[in-house]
Amino acid sequence: MDKNRVKEILNSTKSIEVQYENKPVWIEELDDTRNVAKVRRLDNGMHLTVSVNDLHETGTVH
């Protein structure tokens, strides 16, 4: 995923499913100078800082 899409998801009023390492995550913040995002895994609540390139949108909108 690119940082522009991450910005769109963060600003969206819809819940758009995103995964990191095949696990669903919630994007909490974007650091576009470092091209990383702070995310929270939905299965265990763990917070991670990951490259936006490692995030994948599943296409599911809630």
TrEMBL record:
HAMAP family, sorted: SspH
Annotated source species: Caloramator australicus RC3
Family listed: Belongs to the SspH family.
Regions crossing the membrane: none
Entry's Gene Ontology BP terms: asexual sporulation; sporulation resulting in formation of a cellular spore
Name this protein carries in UniProt: Small, acid-soluble spore protein H
Gene that this sequence comes from: sspH
Keyword Manganese part of the UniProt annotation: no
Lineage start: Bacteria, Bacillati, Bacillota, Clostridia, Eubacteriales
Subcellular location: Spore core
Alphabetical keyword list: Sporulation
